[in-house]
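Below is one such record:
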Amino acid sequence: MSGPVLDWLVAGDPAIRWQAERDLLDRVPAIWEETRTRVGLTGWGRRLLDLQDAGGTWGGGLYSPKWISTTYTLLLLRRLGLAPSNDKAIAGCERLLDDADWVEGGVSYWSGRSLAERCVNGMVLSLVSYFDVHDPRVDSIAELLLSVTMSDGGWNCRDYQDATHSSFHTTISVLEGLTEWRRRTGASDADVAIRRGQDFMFDHRMYRSHHTGEVINDAWTAFHFPPRWHYDVLRGLDHLQDAGAAPDSRAADAVELVRSRRRSDGRWAKGPQYSGETFFTLEPGRVPGRWNTLRALRVLKWWDQRRPATPYM
């Protein structure tokens, strides 16, 4: 793969460059690993690290204010590909564990609310598994999430209110968390839960009602970066390629949606941004989006290089 679009990607921030080198250009590890080291030294990654306070947190809080809290800053640093051994990120993760209320073996950041929300615990699991945090409480969060899978294969943070159908928003956060945990620990007991959660998305063709075939939420057909806690089609597909899932014909409609959004110049639009406080804008102005272009191209590469499997009956 080569051409002006890839040249444009590698001319961007080191966070974009190293992922393009690894995922699109198939550069040898020595090249993209060297680029990756720059994420914490310059550009977006360095700017975020410099905003950490002396206590190891960001924005004055663990989960809020959105989007400058410790949780959401670390989520962004994880997506940038900051080195897992980064001391500042590890310190922030330790605050997420140490300062939480522990409920059911999971974390809660709401005083007086005895609830380990599944989506929040999925996000925190993705962080403490990705970064080099060595703490037995990491496994406790994973074990909680494995124990509360819903009958349709996914998760819902409103299961305490007797929800009977999984939520895409919750499911994608839990899948990302369990995938990072499995990658970190090699825990095979996550495999079945991850496959079932992915099947939940496949059964809905990634964004459609399994009863009517109608689009569940039009917002899911727009591609956001950073995704925060929200699901959209590109985030779901990017998880599948990252997790090494086999392409499935039930995702064909979603993949074609991504393909159809490619502009005449070969790039994808920056996409809408979720409202809330931010430290700075990653891609300011009315510009094509490097993040969406990077993610869309690697999803299409994953899809096009492997024949989609026929879903089992």
User: Anything to note?
Assistant: The chain has three domains: 1-41, 58-196, 204-228+244-313.
